[in-house]
Amino acid sequence: MSFLSSNLILEVDKKRRGDYISLLQREDVLTRRDKIMKRYVIPIVALLFFTIPVLSQAAPWQIDPDHSSFQFKVRHLMVSNVKGHFNKVKGMVTIDEKDITNLKVELTIDAASVDTGHAKRDEHLRAPDFFDVVKYPTITFVSKKVTKAGPERLQVIGDLILHGVTKEITVDVEGPTSEIKDPWGNFRRGATATTKINRKDFGLTWNRVVETGGVVVGEDVDISVEIELIRK
User: What's the sign of the alpha-carbon dihedral 166, 172, 178, 184?
Assistant: First the structure.
């Protein structure tokens, strides 16, 4: 074999080894890329795939104040009940069709809109003895947790801010109902809610003792709410 032929064989051999090394390097790069895809990219894509449909199920619903009522009842002179309501209320409810326990509630009441049907009593309720609406113009409720309490029934736990005091309360809810479409093209649904609070827990302590030993105003306040919602 000539010197030229030997060099040619060596060069070809060297090129083949180089090509083989390059191939191995490319395969190594691809292998690392596959590992990265499996470890990071695929889980992220899967997470997005499963999260987006869940998020798309949550819809905001606005409280319709014209077709909702926010009432309270309190004992008067230990012999009867006085009822009242608030005329100005606004709020939003977010309902997750896939998981109703993801429901969210945000509610704001204009304290000065209190109405018991008696002008002098309403003025007293707006005064510092009770709501003190100049200092505390709003009453708010924000939900924190929702649990199922039976068929079409929920318990909504949240913070009630009244008279500058924040207390956690539990609200019993019947609903929300299935949505319907009204004659004007709006989607609506409703719910009924009830709870009970002690007004003294919120600093509403005014009272007078009567001769028979009772008091003018009871401590427990029953609250009942009828809500109609419009999908936004």
Answer: negative
Check if CATH label 3.90.550.10 holds for domain 58-231: no
Handedness of CA 168, 169, 174, 177 (dihedral sign): negative
Question: Mean pLDDT across the stretch 56-85?
Answer: 94
CB 89 within 8 A of CB 225: no
Which structure tokens are listed for 93? 């409810």
Q: Strands 89-96, 104-110: parallel, antiparallel or unpaired by DSSP?
A: antiparallel
Residue 186 main-chain phi, psi, to 5 deg: -90, 145
pLDDT tens by residue, 86-119: 999 999 999 999 999 999 999 999 999 999 999 9
For residue 1, is pLDDT > 80? no
DSSP, res 210: -
Question: What are the extents of the domains in the chain?
Answer: 58-231
SS (H, E, C) 94-157: EEECCCHHHCEEEEEEEHHHEECCCHHHHHHHHCCCCCCCCCCCEEEEEEEEEEEEECCEEEEE
Query: What pTM does this model have?
Result: 0.74
Nearest to 75 by CA among 226, 171, 225, 215: 215
- 3-state secondary structure (DSSP) of residue 75: strand
